[in-house]
Design brief:
6 helices; mainly alpha
């Protein structure tokens, strides 16, 4: 999960969180979050887009925490210019 968050790519983060949640067991995550399994599978699917509320609930159920910290200057500079530090495999740009 740390690597996923370091990419800064929301889609990649959601996908990674979904993989971890499925590995733990969606039934268990469902019980801990109070969300149905469908409410968990859909947002963490390939086409999903989980809300912050759902993301935080799943992270808490997994025993994960999210901390905000200042970016290093080089990261902040790239984000201000509209560039992401995330580069998918095979992307040469």
């Amino acid at each position: 999960m740390v690597d996923a968050f370091e990419t800064g790519n929301a889609t990649y983060i959601a996908k990674a969180l979904g993989v971890v949640a499925r590995a733990k067991g969606m039934t268990e995550i469902s019980q801990k979050t109070g969300l149905s399994r469908e409410q968990l599978y859909r947002p963490f699917s390939e086409q999903g887009n989980p809300t912050l509320k759902t993301t935080l609930a799943v992270m808490q159920a997994l025993g994960l925490d999210m901390t905000a910290k200042p970016m290093r200057w080089s990261q902040a500079n790239l984000h201000r210019r509209g560039r992401s530090t995330y580069r998918p495999a095979g992307n040469k740009t």
